[in-house]
Target: Methylthioribose kinase
Amino acid sequence: MSHYRTFTAHDAVAYAQQFGGLADPASLVEAQEVGDGNLNLVFKIFDTQGVSRIIVKQALPYVRCVGESWPLTLDRARLEAQTLVEHYKHCPQHTVKIQHYDAELAVMVMEDLSSHRIWRGELISGVYYPQAASQLGEYLAQTLFHTSDFYLHPHEKKAQVARFINPEMCEITEDLFFNDPYQIHERNNYPAELEPEVAALRDDAQLKTAVAALKHRFFSHAEALLHGDIHSGSIFVADGSLKAIDAEFGYFGPVGFDVGTAIGNLLLNYCGLPGQLGIREAASGRDQRLADIVELWNTFAERFQWLAREKTRDAALAFPGYASEFLKKVWADAIGFAGTELIRRSVGLSHVADIDTIQDKEMKLSCLRHAIELGKALIVLAPRIDSADELVARVRQYG
Ligand code: ADP
Ligand code: MG
Ligand code: MG
Ligand code: MG
Model:
């Protein structure tokens, strides 16, 4: 018998008092629901001074932005909490701290990051965090290396893969990234003016073959414990600080998926900036985004190679040069997955504010077309884009 019930603000305060691990739990008096995501309830818990002290997040048994007609597993709260706990072990400086979780209530209590801002909003308004890209590269290298076969004992790795089976959340990704935009589907969401571009996606055999290969890797390559949803809305930043949150899509998948999601969201921002800031004002932000992508990849690859040299436990995988061969495949995957992110965020169910909030209709259409064309090019050209500099050159070539 499950004890699940949807929390009221009052429940959230009581829960935080009991499980928040604070020295002065009685000072917690009030909760405000601040969830702006698509899926869950997020309560900020305030003390008598009106200071937000801790966060209570609860999964709902359905997709919040759609309603009860789309039921969704509560097990995602366990997967989110356990993924973040695992990532925190390997990269505490860039992972939100989970204080407590309860699988039956599908609830977790976590560190309050109100001193930080969601990176997406900052990227849109042109506030630059010069360390964010390298810190994200560091987070990805530490979490993905330490949950891979380079580092885990083979028995431990297999036990972990089983613990992080996440079929329902994976199915959402499988559908939204790799199916919906390439077929007629009621979940798709794009302006009628884009019908020619979207019809062209459905008719492009070369593109659909490459997308099939990416989906196949998402299904079958249990390389490391991914965050699974590491877009700029799942990342908090402050001066010199970066923290990942919201890992309910965590599962063992291809390393390039996390790297590609991160790169894809920087590229979505790149595509939207002219609509947000004006064409002239956007230029320097766009240069920063491309520099961010190079920095993210270089930090990730250098740190991963260093970890592989210092800490690989498997004798065969430790062979000099193997880690860099592996990273070539990760790079090609990442470019392809970044392309699918550009397309699904333009055509599919779930959009990004970087483009969606553009007021001028013609400008918004032009940014959406740009994202679709760039996404297509990346998916098809991925095997031939063999360095971060080459990626930058290709992106500039597409506008
Ligand atoms: P969802 O899974 O529904 O997308 P998120 O974990 O992304 O939920 O949280 C939604 C919003 O709640 C975030 O954009 C942020 O505004 C707020 N939030 C989430 N976690 C925290 C936290 N640890 N500290 C402060 N605010 C948070
Ligand atoms: Mg979220
Ligand atoms: Mg899967
Ligand atoms: Mg989420």
Notes: The mean pLDDT is 97. Residues 279-311 form the longest helix (33 residues).
